[in-house]
């Protein structure tokens, strides 16, 4: 299914989970923080310890990424 920010926010809220999206679409990075990937986080807890649902966005589609 197609999803955008609104749908991902709703998913995170409905499931009470954190969702992290790695955007690989050449969007602007915060190089001052040393970022090499543009991460956008949704939901309550998106720390590594909470095991958020992690999605990889490449132009045109999302992939689910797990450890």
Core attributes:
globular; 16% helix; 1 helix; 4-stranded mixed β-sheet; 31% strand; 67 residues; alpha+beta
Summarize the structure.
The protein is of the alpha+beta class. It has one helix at residues 5-15, and strands at 19-23, 38-42, 53-58, 61-65.
Give an account of the 3D structure:
The chain is α+β, with helices and mostly antiparallel strands and 67 residues long. It has one domain. The protein is 16% helix and 31% strand. The chain has a 4-stranded mixed beta sheet with strand order 2-1-3-4. A hairpin with a 2-residue loop joins β3 and β4. The radius of gyration is 12 Å and the shape is globular. 9% of the residues are buried.
Strand content range = 25-35%
Most strands sheet: 4 strands, mixed
Give the N-to-C terminal Cα separation: 23 Å
> How many structural units, i.e. domains?
1
Described by the principal axes of the CA atoms, the overall outline is globular
The helicity comes to: 10-25%
Protein name: OTUBL thioesterase
InterPro entries: Papain-like_cys_pep_sf, Peptidase_C65_otubain, Peptidase_C65_otubain_sub1
Pfam families: Peptidase_C65 (PF10275)
Which secondary structure elements does this structure contain, and how are they paired or packed?
Elements (H helix, E strand, L loop, with lengths): L4 H11 L3 E5 L14 E5 L10 E6 L2 E5 L2
Parallel strand pairs: 1-3
Antiparallel strand pairs: 1-2, 3-4
């Amino acid at each position: 299914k197609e999803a955008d920010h609104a749908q991902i926010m709703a998913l995170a809220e409905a499931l009470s989970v954190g969702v992290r999206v790695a955007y690989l679409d050449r969007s602007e990075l915060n190089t001052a923080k040393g970022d090499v990937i543009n991460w956008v986080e949704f939901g309550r807890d998106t720390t590594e310890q909470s095991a958020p649902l992690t999605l990889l966005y490449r132009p045109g589609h999302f992939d689910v990424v797990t450890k």
